Amino acid sequence: MSKDKEFYSTFFALMGGLAVFAILLVIIAGNLTSDVSDYKPEEIVLENIKPVGQVYIAGESEPEAAPAADTAVASSGPKSGEEVYNGSCMSCHGTGAAGAPKLGDKAAWTPRIAAGMDSMLANAINGLNAMPPKGLCMACSDAEIQGAVEYMVSNSQ
Ligand code: HEC
To answer: pTM of this prediction?
Structure first.
């Protein structure tokens, strides 16, 4: 009988201790997660998966970070003669490569200028020997090519 009593007193002391320990753990855990109300998983996920960029169609209200609209308009307009020359003609006409009449070389340009703008423009658009059609600027309009020819001529007289 005394053995049983000894067992029960040890057993309940142990259980009591564990119960107190368990309550302590609950209190500690409660303190650790006291800021649980600030945790908004939905907002965090939305922030993490938001798109890198946004597509918008002209006419719609554009996103604030979009580049200024006039930049795109400016680059799609007709290029000046100098721009076409720098982009498409200078590689040959700036160096005289492939026998191209050099910009500023009066002797090379005088007979061509004498043949007239119509002739020069036709040769520039259609090509002439090593001169490729449109100087390979297939996106250039005839007017843009003419601008480039005029730019070269006015700098070679
Ligand atoms: C791959 C080199 C090359 C490029 C690029 C090039 N040209 Fe030429 N171009 C030539 C050569 C070579 C000639 C001389 C052709 C000849 O007389 O046999 C020439 C001649 C010309 C002539 C004189 C045509 C004539 O009637 O005598 C014009 C005008 C001309 N090029 C305009 C242009 C323009 C404008 C561009 C750019 C849009 C351009 N070229 C780009 C090589 C080039």
So the answer is: 0.62
| Cβ(129) – ligand 1 distance below 6 Å | yes
Torsion angle of the four alpha carbons 59, 61, 65, 66, in this order, in degrees rounded to the nearest 10: 0
Please state, for a pLDDT cut of 90, what percent of the chain lies above it: 61
What is the rounded CA–CA span in Å between residue 148 and residue 117? 12
Q: Which residues of 11-40 are buried (b: 16+ CB within 10 A; e: fewer)?
A: eeeeeeeeeeeeeeeeeeeeeeeeeeeeee
User: Is the shortest distance between the CB of 136 and ligand 1 below 6 Å?
Assistant: yes
Mean pLDDT of 40-63: 77
- Name the residue among 137, 144, 148 with its Cα closest to residue 77: 144
Q: Is the CB of 132 under 6 A from ligand 1?
A: yes
Mutate to test the pocket of ligand 1, among 80, 93, 157 (most ligand atoms within 8 A of CB): 93
Report pLDDT digits (tens) over 56-75. 777 776 555 545 544 444 45
